[in-house]
Amino acid sequence: MKKILIIEDNTFVANTYRTRLESSNYSVNIAPDGQSGYYAIYETKPDAVLLDLTVPQMDALSVLGKVRAQKQFKKLPVFVLAESDSDSAADDAMFAGATHCFNKSDEGALDEVVVALDDLFCSVLNKAAARKKFAPVAPTHSNVPEEPAFIPENRARVAPAESFSPKSAPVHIAPEAPYFNSREVDAQCVYSRVPSVAPVAYAEVPKAPPATKQPVTEPAIQVVESIEVDSKAIQSELQGHFLASYPSTVHTIRGLFVSLINAKGTPDRVQSIEELWTQIRGLRSSAAQSGMLGLARLCMPLEALASRAKSAEPEKALAGLQKLANTVDLLVALSNHLSEIEPLNRIDPRVLVVDDENVSRKALTLSLQKAQITAVGAKDSSSALLEVEGGLFDLMFLDVEMPGINGFGLCARIRLLPSHKTTPIIFVTSLEDLKSRASSRISGGNHFITKPVNFEELNLTALTFIFKHRLRNSLQENGNKDWTVFR
Prior knowledge:
The strands form three sheets. Strands 2-1-3-4-5 form a five-stranded parallel sheet, with helices on both faces. A five-stranded parallel sheet has the order 9-8-10-11-12, sandwiched between helices. A two-stranded parallel ribbon has the order 6-7. The model is unreliable at 155-169, 176-197 and 221-227 (pLDDT under 50). The chain has helices at 11-23, 34-44, 60-68, 87-96, 109-133, 187-192, 231-262, 266-289, 293-311, 314-321, 325-334, 358-370, 381-390, 407-414, 434-443, 455-477, and strands spanning 3-7, 27-31, 48-52, 78-82, 100-103, 155-157, 200-202, 350-354, 374-378, 395-399, 425-429, 447-450. The protein is built from 16 helices and twelve strands. Helix 1 runs antiparallel to helix 7. Strand 10, helix 14 and strand 11 form a beta-alpha-beta unit. It is of the alpha/beta class.
């Protein structure tokens, strides 16, 4: 059984990979940081290593450098697990000696790692078998002929006798031939002047029985057996692990978010932003690996905004992170309704975008489509009413300043339709005054974002309100009174 060492600080991700690898007949050890992982390589002598690119204490590049500096580990396979936004770091890891890099945020990354390990060890076994097959065979005693291949014609043989003994065999020693030392004498003359030699009687050596040719058995090429893996059972187990750790994870995120908002000093705020981003990144990665793709899709723009806040000025970072409050509240609310997380995978949202400016409308629809949201555009209020009356939408973005019926008037008319009494409506406008915000509430709007629009904020806001609306409807249908929280 091959030994795999996983160096990963995210407990859920590490356990996810261990569960999958153990089901494929691998022995797995886990190290929570780079330092302990480096020591574990010496202690356990693994056959391959899975190394997270962002492990703490000793970073992945340092681990790779120290491992490759040791002669015994120069050829140790090290697969690096990178994040979606770590392309340059992944290139650095390959330069430092990584065998291959995988984006662990991808849905099929886990299966790709298992296939790579299977191919690696299958190739190693086949090469070993090939070396054994074509290795030169050392000569054995049975291969050496026991009788000279050429016997001179003037060599007489003694008739074979049953009671033959080498001591009783008559042997005549020939007199010594003349010695010639002149280089001018022709070689042929030399041999012609050799006097005739008395015949010599040789004892006949009994012939060894002919060696029977043994059939050569070629070493069989070993192939790593493919082990049947019950993917549904593994997925179910991974989801169970994820749901068990989800409440503590999101409460940690909420605690960091609150401490970030209340932080007074810049150093404390910077550290809180880093920790918040790390936790969100881990949640998104864990959700993707366990098959909770709807939740992972929600966390992607959340992680992107947190990452942007890390490099922004403190005041701008704080203003940007305040826009995450609705999403953080939704994540915490889901911790009380874990059974509602998996159905988020099957949501195929449909959104209406109403804006009289072609460029703005096109930009909004393209941004939503990148977040895997079907977006329908309307150039004015009349077109929008036709779209709304003809179909259902999970969310609507309305521009406030439009000719004819403005966004507030359109919202009031939409609320008169029974099918859209509770559909989330978000106003998009360059107006930031209190009067406009009050009008948006009075007309029935749910939220207000200003131009120019940050597209990551747009996608996060859209997914947050879509998921919140679906959760509200599901709880109401099941008679759960908590649905009132999501009004």
